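How it folds:
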Amino acid sequence: MPKHKSLKRFLILRYKYISQKNYVYLLCIVVGLMVGLASVALKNITFAIEKVLEQGIVVSENQLYFILPFIGLFLVYLFRKYLIRSELVPSVPSFLKRAIPSLLYSLLRQKGLLSYKLIYHPLILAPLTVGFGGSVGLLGPAITSGSALSSNLSRLLHVDKKTRTLLIACATAGAMASMFKSPIAGIVFAIEVFSLDLTFVSLLPLLIASICSILTSYFFLGDEVLFNFSVSDNFSISDTPFYIILGIGTGIASLYFTKIYFAIYAFFDRFKTRFVKLLVGGLAIGIMLYFIPPLYGEGLSFTRDLFSGDYLSALGANPFDQYLNNVWVVIVLLLGFSLFKVIAMTTTFAAGGVGGVIVPTMVMGSALGNVIAKTLNSLGLGLTVSEANFTLVGMAGLIAGVIHAPLTAIFLIAEITGGYALFVPLMITVAISYMITKNYMEHTIYTRELAERGDLLTHDRDKNVLTLMRLESVIERNFIPLHPKMTFGEMLHEGVSKSTRNLFPVTDSDNQFLGIILLDDIRELLFDQKLYDTTFVEDYLHNPPNVINFDEDSMQTVMDKFQSSGAWNLPVLKNGKYDGFVSKSKLLTAYRRQLINFNK
């Protein structure tokens, strides 16, 4: 009770003395600081687990790789089964229970209200997954934890939905800024992923949150950037064809990444229980780690070794050590790492692990860029390209292709390496990779499932308004159904005389939809009494111009059906049975009302 009174007193004082704009700025500062702390905690816990297990891996001569991923996933399984005991986001479909997709779904359908358990669960589950060898990243869990902090803070302080969405975007920007020390990339990422309008109203809060979050990271972790890299080989115009090749390569790799991601999930969906998924996934990851040790954990040390040109350390101890003096063997091993990184990552997710996608994407891109550079340098054509630069730019190309966030890719890679000297090649590679993947795949691993359900917001305002509308809200049910064996007289007595509508659905005894009758169809026959007992409803019914499937059609599809059919009313079928009608006038009225609310 005292806490409730203190909160009430605070809210009264806030309404009296703090404007809404300044109040939002203060909340952004709090969100930035909290997200920074969560990100630092996530990093440190994971690093501590890896440090403890590192010595055991060395002593066992990599034998522990077989069992560590299984142990980590098993601990995650036990934690979920006996300590959580309920789904974190119960109303979200199971295939959406991944960091970014579930967050996007929550913002659209649940007003951004997230369980308070999501604040601390990722801080436990992600370190167990990554620390024990799961081949995933930490950014996704940091975003989830930060977003839950923002959501519950906004709920506590009675913040409206629009401000709550902005605070969750601030948490996302802050998480990326803190994890990678890249404030600009964090802001751009939030705008690209959450489809925010780039206005001063949204930009300044994102900037404040990113600054506060990155300051927290500097305070606890110092001023080191993610990669100690300085550009020694500057870009020249003669390098352009090679970066075009890199863009094509990363674009193709992005398509491979996305297809493998969904294929592995589809494979694991065959298993009915979590434990079977854990068993199969843990064993598969262990085997991959034994033969390809760099797949262990996030893989950032692998990329650092590639930057420094130390490919022996990057590849680690493996069965092919005696052949590493041959550059083509190195190229094949690096290519194999690139191909298996996405397999190991998705297997970790599908087996029940918790983590993020962006860091594995970066690591895979670095390997691919290095492969292309080594291949060009080893063809014997007198070509010379910078392997370090290609390693760096390859990361950006794959990020742009996989998550369709080209600006994020450019600024992230520029900031984590402490400079913008490679801005032109970054733009060349990123643009080509993005165009290739966007041309063949409209949606990303974050958004494809949401788009299929009609639950995806984009930068298209008209589509967003339709997405926010619910079909249930525009269905009208004040129509009198007719039955096919009714006589014409019964139809007039039971239907026409009692209805205020000029349209009648025809259904059978099981409510199966058979067709419609328009008042205009029978208007000239209304007073012909000879037809009252000799003709039946089935003699006058006909098919509607189109039908709306409640379980399948999105609001965009409904609007398209009205446009293509030219109808003013279309019947709605739910589970194959008649459920009502949607009228064009009501649909357009609801659309205009939603558009007004969306622009407030």
Observations:
- The first helix runs from residue 2 to 17.
